[in-house]
Write a structure and sequence with these properties.
This protein is mainly α. The protein is built from five helices and no strands. Helix 1 (2-8) crosses helix 2 (24-41) and helix 2 (24-41) packs across helix 5 (83-101).
């Protein structure tokens, strides 16, 4: 609910995301809300990528440099703070929708 109020405000023509007068906590909250909205909008991409990477990581040849570098960069993306929480929230929300639509 807090994110919805922040994201519903329209910025002015000269408004930037990081203003000198804006406290750091508010800037962090705005960025977290934007990340949550972006992840939930792109939930099919993130969920498919995560399930495919988990399956393929067990089959990868980790003795070659390209395999190690690929796995490093993918895990770096999914290690962002709060990203897995948002993906879990998306899975929970999807299960609730499917459960209520079956009635």
């Amino acid at each position: 609910m807090r994110c919805a109020r922040i994201l519903s405000r329209k910025p002015g023509p000269r408004t930037r995301l990081s203003q000198d007068w804006m406290p750091a906590e508010k800037t962090t909250l705005i960025l977290q809300c934007l990340l949550k909205a972006f992840v939930l909008d792109n939930f099919p991409f993130y969920s498919t990528l995560l399930t495919e990477i988990i399956g393929r990581s067990f089959q990868m040849d980790l003795t070659s440099d390209p395999g190690i570098v690929f796995l490093y960069w993918v895990t770096k993306v999914f290690a962002q703070p709060g990203l897995m929480d948002y993906i879990d929230y998306g899975f929970f929300f999807l299960q609730c929708i499917l459960r209520f639509s079956a009635c």
